[in-house]
Structures are given as C-alpha cells and as structure tokens.
Amino acid sequence: MSSKHTSRTGRAGRRAVALPLGVAVVSALAFLPGTASAQSDAPAAAPAAPGVGVLAAAAPADGSTMSYVVNVRTGHGGWVAKYVKKAIAKADGKVVISYDKIGVIVVHSANPDFAKTIRKVKGVQSAGATRTAPLSAQSSDDIDAARPLSAKEAKAAAGKAAGDQDELEPLQWDLPAMKADQAHKVSLGSPKVTVGVLDSGVDDTHPDIAPNFDRRASASCLGGVPTQKDNAWRPVANESDHGMHVAGTIAAAKNGTGVTGVAPGVKVASLKVAEPATGLYYTEAVVCGFMWAADHGVDVTNSSYYTDPWLFNCRTDADQKALVDAVGRATRYAERKGAVNVAAAGNAKTDLAQDEIVDESSPNDTTPVERTIKTADCFDIPSQLPGVVTVSSTGAKGIKSSFSNYGKGVIDIAAPGGDSTAFQKPQPPATSGLILSTLPGGKFGYKAGTSMASPHTAGVAALIKSTHPKASAARVKALLYRQADAMACTDPYDIDGDGKVDAVCAGGKNKNGFYGVGMSDALDAVRK
Q1: DSSP designation for 15
Q2: Cα separation of 327 and 12, whole Å?
Q3: Most buried residue among 117, 318, 417, 445 by CB atoms closer than 10 A?
Q4: Phi and psi, residue 389, nearest 5°
Q5: pLDDT tens digits for 268-282?
C-alpha cells in the first residue's frame, strides 16, 4: 500500500480467541455426549486483556542462561559447522542440538556477549537469542479458553444425527461450509497420509483421535530436542487444550460418535512445540517440529501460532533476523521433503498489508514495549514465510470473522474458524457460531480463531494428498488454490452492525485481502 497506516495488534495474534461474555462462555470444562454437567454452566470470568495481568519475568541479568540459534553455511563437507561448534565452546556456549541438514545450531550460554561474539565467527550467517527471559524464569500466559459442550446440546445433536453422521456432527456447521460433508461420501482420506500438528500436546487416547493417531511421527520438541519417551507428545496437567482442538478438526474419526474431522480417514501426529507452563512457542522447538515432521514422512503440517516472543520478527534486528532464518530454513526443508505447511493468519483483526503496524505485545515473555514495525522488513513466523499457506477465518454466515487478520497479498485462502454467535449465527440444528472439536480426556468443546481455520485447510490439503498420493508439495498447494471457491470482498464490512465499516477488503473476487483465493473446498479435493 502506498500510504502509511498503523494498527494495534494484541497478544491473541494466533491462538484461539476469547470472545465476549454472553457470546462465548469461557471454561476449561467439556463433557461427553449424554453426560451431566459436573459444574454450573454459568459464565466464567473473562481472561485478562492482551498485555494486562500477565506475570512477566525479570529481564535476564548477567550470568543467566539463555537459549540461542546459530545459523551457519551448509555444505562444504560439514567443516563450517564443525569450525563454528569449536567457536561456540570458546564463547562459553553449549551445543544442545545441531540440525546440520539446514545449518541451525541450538545453543545455551550464560555469556551475555555470546551472540555478539559468535556473529563475528567465519561461517556464521546469523545468530540470536530465542527469548528475552532466561531459561529458568519464563512468563505465564493464558492463551485460550474453550466453551464446554453441554449435556443438553450433546443430547439434542445426537437425536438429529442422520444415519451417516457422527453424534455431534449436526452441530458442526463448518463441515458443510466447505463441502466436507459431501466429500466424506466420496472419500474420508487415506491412512497413508499424515498431518503433523505443531502445537500443545495431543491426547491420543481420545476415542475420536486414537483410531487415526500416528505415534511413529509424533514427538515432543520442547527445548529443540525431539523425544518420544513416555508419550511425551501428550498434554500434561493444566496444559492448553489448543493442540487437541486443532487435531480433532483435522482428523477426528468418523466412527459413529463424537465429532467428525475434515479428513477423518487420514492420520494425525502430535509435534509438541508449546511450553506447557507458559503456552509459548519458541524458535528452537518450532525448528525441531518442522525437522521431525519432514524426516518422518509427514505430508501436511499445521501451525496455529506465531513464534514467540516477537509477534513480528524484524530482519533489521540481529536477534530477530536469526529467528526468521532458523524457522525459514526448517519450513523450506519440510517442503522440500514433501510437506505442505499451513498456518493461521492471526486474530488481531489487522490489515497485514499495511506499510507499518504498531506492535505493543512484544516481547511477550518479559515486558512488552510498543514499537512500530515496517511490514517490508518484519514477519509473523511461520505464517508469513515463503511457501507457507496463510489462512484467514470465516464465520457461520460465510464472511470474514470479526477477529481475523487480513491483507491483500498476505492471505492465501480462507476456511471456517468461527465467530461470535451474535455476529454470525449458524443455521439449525447448529447453535453456536464457534467451532466444535475434541478436547483432552474424551471431551468436546467450542473455540474460535484463525487457529481453528488453519486446520480446516490442512485437512483439505490432506484430502488432496490422499487423492493424488504422488503429488509434490507444490502440486498439492496448486490444487488447493485452484479448487478453492472464489469469494468476493464483503463490502461494506460492518460485522457488528453499528453502521461503521470495521475493515476494508482490497482486491477482486478471485483474489483479495479477506479470503485470498477463496474458501477451501473439501469436495473438489476428493473428486478432482
């Protein structure tokens, strides 16, 4: 865009959003179909606004151990990496893991000058701290909340389910919105296709997840080091249920009970990259997730997050440049290995195509400082990295969700992510404008966000891969875009009906800032 604009972005830049009370009840509980509520369904207190009430860690003092990524030249028989590793040791750094295939080294060091020192070493292309808080003192942050599925809703849905529907499928308005219900009559997807969920843990014991879970391709990547020991990919107590909701949207089994995924016949793997205590997604874990997925045959990855602690990572900053380089190398490697990388556009209702944006939420692991970023230099990662499919969110009326980010040339495609029921109410028998999916412990609940839109598109990509098993990642993406149902700009866009325009959509019917090339189409994915 030629003129300068600014827009404020909130902490909920990627995760599921907490919609206003009276619209979405925020609660950590959910219930199995036909069971009684263990607690009152009265609304819980709303979470703190972005940047409010967050306990921030103190800024790291000299002597605090920090985590870094060091990006080096690849090739040359590996001598560059060996040389740099010796330099790392001399600079009081300890190599945690080295991803030699892409030249990314994860390092811990208590030397406050480590990054400055190592950047001067021959063969080092960039290096930077992956966080602003020491390893021993991270911030806490509530990243999402779910509205429980009530026993009354479950019973009503089960009574309306057709013979070929799972019990709760009548509440899933999102499936017909992208023709997934019609697609399932043709194909459920192939069990030879796996979608990797880079997120918080996935409960593979859930009745709707267990039939389709790929243990071989699952791992915890916390700290940047993959492990499968003790089912490390599962959520722990008090961990976010975000990843579990995402996994169900992609591949909840069509087994007569519970909900149905977009691609209920494909496999889903858990790549745990979110810190359980904080809900933060650090670079070293994200790099590990993409690398593990790539090396274990994952066909599609879903990233419903932004890489912490910076909402936007600027190449003009030495530390942030290193994070862009590291994650970018990992996503490109995954795509070269055949994976289609799908990511959520974010929930700050911001035009990402503006020349400048005011970011007041970064860094989010210590003390946020307001800054104005130039979009030509600063990127939301992984969603704005080259090759990554960026997904915006639509609601039950088929228009951009009130919270969804947008931007011509930034948004690639759209998918259902839900919205306030007051803004976009679904047709009966569905009752909520949010997205219903799986939660840990055999439960189900509603969420909304571009976090919920992205897995819908990931599911469609998995159906395309099922239909065209030999297709490259580039071919799958081309089909995904070609088969999308074009959507004209919503003009004027007055989502709350107050007579004021809430966002301006740029572009034509076949490609615009709200919907990209249009709605992800599950039916075309299985028949073309």
Answers
A1: S
A2: 21
A3: 417
A4: -80, 115
A5: 999 999 999 899 999
The structure tokens listed for 497 are: 């009906």
pTM of the model: 0.89
Could you count the other beta carbons within 10 Å of the beta carbon of residue 20? 10
Q: Which residue has the tokens 């040791």?
A: 89
Answer for the pair 336, 291: CB distance below 8 angstroms, yes or no: no
Q: Is 39 exposed, middle or buried (0-12, 13-18, 19+ CB in 10 A)?
A: exposed
The burial of 111, by beta-carbon neighbours within 10 Å (0-12 exposed, 13-18 middle, 19 or more buried), is given as: middle
Residues 6+ apart with CB under 8 A from 86: none
- Which pLDDT does position 323 carry in this prediction? 98
Tokens 């088929």 correspond to what residue?
A: 398
Angle of CA points 245, 143, 443, to nearest 5°: 30
pLDDT in tens, 10-55: 433 445 665 543 333 222 223 233 322 222 222 222 222 222 222 2
Which residue's entry shows tokens 């030699």?
A: 100
CA-nearest of 339, 346, 447 to 390 is 346
Q: Locate tokens 């219900």: which residue? A: 181
Amino acid at 252: A
CA–CA gap between residue 112 and residue 110 (Å, rounded): 6
Distance CA 414, CA 193 (A): 22
CA separation for the pair 24, 148 (Å, rounded):
10
Q: d(Cα 98, Cα 124) in Å, to the nearest integer? A: 14
Whole-number average pLDDT of the chain: 88
